[in-house]
Amino acid sequence: MTGVVVVAPTRVRVRVTVSGLVQGVGFRPFVYVTASALGLTGRVANTPAGVLAEVEGDTVAVTEFRRRLVAEAPPLAVVEAVEHGEVPARGGTGFTIEATTDGEGRTLASPDVATCSDCLAELADPGDRRHRHPFITCTNCGPRFTIITRLPYDRAGTTMADFAMCAACRAEYDDPTDRRFHAQPIACHDCGPTLELVVGGDLRSGEGALRGARDLLAAGCIVAVKGLGGYHLACDAGNGAAVAELRRRKRRGDKPFAVMTRDLAAAERLVRATGPERRLLTGGRRPIVLLPRREGAAVAAAVAPGHPLLGLMLPYTPLHVLLLEEPGPRSLVMTSGNRSGEPIVTDDQDALDRLASLADGWLRHDRRIEVPCDDSVARFVAGAELPLRRSRGHAPLPVALPFDVSPVLATGGDLKNTCAVASGRYAWLSQHVGDLDDLATQDALASSVAHLEELTGVDPGLVVTDAHPGYRAHRWARERAGDRPLRTVQHHHAHVASVMGEHGLAGGEEVIGVAFDGTGYGDDGAVWGGEVLVAGYGSYRRAAHLRYVPLAGGDASVRRPYRMALAHLWAAGVAWDDDLPAVGVCPVTERGVLRHQLETGFGAVPTSSMGRLFDAVSSLVGVRHTVDYEAEAAIELEVLAAGAAGAPDPVPTAYSFEVTGDEPLVADPAPVVRAVVADVRAGTAPDLIAARFHAAVADLVVRLAVHERTRSGLRTVALAGGVFQNAVLLESAERLLAGRGFTVLRPRLLPPHDGGLALGQILVGSRVRPRQ
Amino acid sequence: MGHGGGGAMSGELIEQLFLPAYGGAARADLGDSAVLAVPGLREGARLAFSTDSFVVRPMFFPGGSIGDLAVNGTVNDLAMSGATPLYLSTAYILSEGTALADIGRVATAVGKAAESAGVQLVTGDTKVVDSGSGDGVYVNTAGIGIVPAGVEIGPTRAEVGDVVLVSGDIGVHGIAVMSCREGLEFGTRIESDTAALHGLVADLLGTGVDVRVLRDPTRGGVSATLNEIARASGVGIELVERDLPIPPEVKDACGLLGLDPLQVANEGKLLAVVPADGAEQVLEAMRRHPLGSGAARIGRCVAEHPRMVVARTGLGGTRVVDLPIGEQLPRIC
Ligand SMILES: [Fe+3]
Ligand SMILES: [Mg+2]
Ligand SMILES: [Zn+2]
Ligand SMILES: [Zn+2]
């Protein structure tokens, strides 16, 4: 018997919950449009657990709906999970978008996103009702993280709650087919925030404020500009006197400033950029990108004295676009509006008080900034992005974890602090908090933790921190832990675990972790920093380290690299003769005291720091004897080495560490130090010495890795720690290791320095069994 | 081992080891001196009781010796509770082989210091241990004194708005002992300022101002002492960096060694927390006394950042002044 079986289309109703970063990114109108196109009826709502949709119709259409939900999600959405279940069909017609409901659960907040091309077009269109509106935004762009006060993400949960929508904005906001449907920061000339310029006792608003600010900048003045995550201090990047004045007022030393140009074309007149670098510059995250400066670029030398790279970013708010219009400077120095060492200023009154001695005028607006968020910084090394600061455009995007964790808080380290919370398979890293020396930055840590907990709903039952008993991050964790268990993680173990974690290595895996940085507290009470750790998440073994030299006087030897040079000379048995630049700059009284400290260990701690060895060599070569900011000496050595990279070295393997011992191996820098001294005395060009030193360190990495592979069979190397911000070293270590058959993991999502510690702390702290 | 450094680690030893081990027999406030109600004293007067052990090396240093410290240290602990010191005990632990002449010099110093402080040495003890168990002379002193009626000085009494005063230069003693012990040449010779402070205390109590807290910032320096006061009283303390009387030679030596002057020990100095409206009066009284001629106002108690000490820097920022840990480790990465 043959026949045709006709299956009547079955009508089903399915309830779908989409969790992840799905609020404030146009997800509900997307659901509405998708369901309508498939002829489905039902409803969609925001809940604290995510977007909840019920769709009803025939099975095929419902299945297709579920496919499109993931495949065609809005650009800013990050779908974490989709749960679905059948519910009784109800019939009905049409599709409704419902108001936000309360309940249990968690959704994710979006980072701030640079102004989209649609909004930019409207901004420039004289016929548009938002023509030249400095706060134009839509569901695809604009402020998020920095204006959200609580979840769920709706207008009342942002600092835009202070502004009542006008009828026209309200209509767009309520229209599911509009690009601004439920765009919480929606605003226009009639109802949005307003611009204001404060100069002396003078107040100007709107276009007058903009024009006034541009005039000030053109005249070489310094203007505090309120942006997304705080105030910038801006001045004309082409005006040497203005930049020098900004340096003087900020007491900034020689640390490079970032520059914002009008557009990509203007940027490319200053720097050279590759395809991926251009995409990073123009993308939604819009970080500061370090790029090689063009010969004769039209920026003042004082922007980045003696530095071949320039930190560049493009406008990411409508206000920036308007500020950089003609007439006026085409490139602006844009540096964080803060007093040296303090967090970026977000509050208008604070800006007037704290930036009083720094700025000549204040260009500001009345949209409050809920949390500070500095610009992110990145560079490309060997074709891949190397984050140097993960902040605006990233925070609070989660990082996926390789295994489940119970709710946990990690407080990070003391320099370039970022903290993190995690639960389940996600960790949320805070924006850049800063160096915890001062009270204001410690307060910023406390509010970052509170804001992260609010945004993620994570209620940490465990607190993890660095093992250094004197770290503020450690003390803060101890004070705040209360009844919760507190676990400490060795600094370099956290560095290595962080790199393992961002690469998704599973819970049981082990790597050869090369952790090179400035200082971290070691298990033996020494200051570590030139370490090879065979590490899993739960434990590690110290496989190799640099030979200890005395770090005399703690921070004094960090701020004065010549002291580290003298320490390494002493350890290498080289006399302190005045012909060596590092010896010459050390005052005679200090030499006597230092020698005593080195010989007796008084006020000195043994250190295996690779960062300090870079400092020492930098001083030995005569490049930099004292520093204004961390790693300055090492960076200048890298610049020298990079300059020499083109010229073939007549003696390519001139320097070599001596590796002895067994468990752990000890790498002695003495032969390298002696070779550097011999080259200095022979008048070898400093850039060549710098290049040889970098080659010796890269060679050491390979030798130690090969040795460990022979011992344990491990073939994966993780490169971690602040020293790997050094592009010359990172590039050559990566290349040489790959050439020897290693799989190389390097930081891609998080910075190699202490700004990436918190993730490692989370992974190790969640894995380690508490000691009894 | 940093447990004797006077910082976070000694605090931990007391809280986590000694107090639990003592059980019900100890009073929780193991302060520098105990102020006790004793039957038979005049109405309102109380007994102050304190003990301290002295292990400083070298035993003799510019400006003093272990003998001076042994007397002045305990006298000062009593004075800081507002007591008039009366009687001291002295106990010596001598390692075998210590030169008799050295023991004699220490004993002479003890006698002279007691005489000039106006206290009587009323009981004592001497033990000799094998050489190897120690070296030279260690001294323990205990003392009693009377706190007059109406004087209520204690670490918990600092209030928001109060002013913090110091009686003179900071860091001198610690640097003197250190440079002598280590044989360091800093260019300028620095002498210890060890002295008995109860005369100075009597003068400032004589102003009638309600002095809240008095402390001698010995081990762990001004930093440790102020952190303890901030914690005990639940207030924040804000120092003004440029008002801190730190002599240039102390600054230089600290710079060379990588030390924080606020963490360096003092002997002949006191910190006073007083109400703002009496601060000027107390300051004047201190300055009239030879041991307080360099007195200065260095900060105040604030409601912000409770239990924390910060220093306002020249740049207008606020640096956190930490309780020192056992040794000074770099935090810079
Ligand atoms: Fe580090
Ligand atoms: Mg004492
Ligand atoms: Zn847009
Ligand atoms: Zn409007």
From TrEMBL, chain A:
Catalytic activity: an acyl phosphate + H2O = a carboxylate + phosphate + H(+); C-terminal L-cysteinyl-[HypE protein] + carbamoyl phosphate + ATP + H2O = C-terminal S-carboxamide-L-cysteinyl-[HypE protein] + AMP + phosphate + diphosphate + H(+)
Domain YrdC-like: 207-393
E.C. number(s) listed in UniProt: 6.2.-.-
Keyword Ion transport set for record: no
UniProtKB keywords: Hydrolase, Ligase, Metal-binding, Zinc, Zinc-finger
Domain of life: Bacteria
Enzyme class: ligase
Active site: 28, 46
Entries under PROSITE patterns matching the protein: ACYLPHOSPHATASE_1 (PS00150), ACYLPHOSPHATASE_3 (PS51160), YRDC (PS51163)
Gene Ontology terms describing biological process: protein maturation
Gene3D superfamilies per the UniProt record, alphabetical: 3.30.110.120, 3.30.420.360, 3.30.420.40, 3.90.870.50
Protein name in the entry: Carbamoyltransferase
UniProt organism field: Nocardioides donggukensis
